[in-house]
Amino acid sequence: MPITNMNEMFNDAKKGRYSVGAFNIFNHLTALAVVRAAESLNAPVIIQTSMGTVKYYGINETMRWLKPLCENSSANIVINLDHCTDESFAYECIDAGWTCIMFDGSHYPLEQNIEITRRIVKYAHNKGAFVEGEVGVIKGIEEEIISDDESLAKFEDIQKFIVETGVDSIAPSVGTAHGIYKGVPEINYKLIDRITSELDCPLVIHGGSGLSLQTYKKFVDSGVSKINISTNIKDAYMGFFVENHSVQNPLELDKELTNRIVNVVKSSILTFSSRKE
């Protein structure tokens, strides 16, 4: 089916009382696994590509294999460019067919972040695409995005950012981190609850891999619209090759690896599937 409208996807999630899983892929095999997992559960998903992945394959080449894979699926799918830090690159990806851009201007002062994000929002909306913005600095490593420091977002800054940019969703720093957690993160659930109850803008959680089931359920119960999963997929992918290094049949490896990624994605989708009554 056609690539899904992001706003419709989030509206359906709100009505259905679930969070949408957003999964970072880095080749055709991982993208195929996400699509198959979504189809098997009749669930909506967001497929995310990093700037690094897109630069490696090329903008047009990436979309040549990604778009048909999504459009030929029975699942509702959005294609998102994750953590884009380059304004020009964002425009190129919108023109090539990305239906959502996550622009990460968190390394800029707030006013500059607002200014650049506002321009991208205007461009994207004119093309029928959507924009996710970030406020505060999320700690950790997400490919070329590296931050040793964390700057938790302030509610007033988040509110100002949403109003002045017109973003379609917001990813504030609330205490989660990219990559592998060392210890239990201190998550600001009060801020999450305030955003979802007072601001009319879907809330996105970055750094979703490796959290406890209880944490995921708190996110879902709070009305979080989107939860990002990246490290879990990378770990499953790399771990598979370590465990099966002696297997000589590439197609056999690909089949089993795809099934492993499918199971990782399905587990997340089911975890994010409903809120408590």
Q: Describe it for me?
A:
This protein is an alpha/beta fold. It has a single domain, classed as TIM Barrel (Alpha-Beta Barrel). The protein has eleven helices and eleven strands. Helix 10 packs antiparallel against helix 11. The longest helix has 22 residues. It is globular, with a radius of gyration of 18 Å. It starts with 5 loop residues before the first helix and ends in a 6-residue tail after the last helix.
Helix content, binned percent: 40-55%
Low-pLDDT sequence parts: none
Q: Main sheet? A: 8 strands, parallel
CATH topology: TIM Barrel
Number of helices: 11
Mean pLDDT over all positions: 90
Can you tell me the CATH architecture? Alpha-Beta Barrel
Shape: globular
Can you tell me the CATH superfamily?
Aldolase class I
Radius of gyration: 18 Å
What portion of residues belong to β-strands?
Answer: 15-25%
How many beta-strand segments?
A: 11
Supply the number of structural domains. Answer: 1
Spatial strand order of the main sheet:
8-5-4-3-2-1-11-10
CATH class: Alpha Beta
Order of helices and strands: HEHEHHEHEHEEEHEEHEHEHH
- End-to-end distance: 32 Å
**Which structural category do the helix and sheet elements fall into?**
alpha/beta
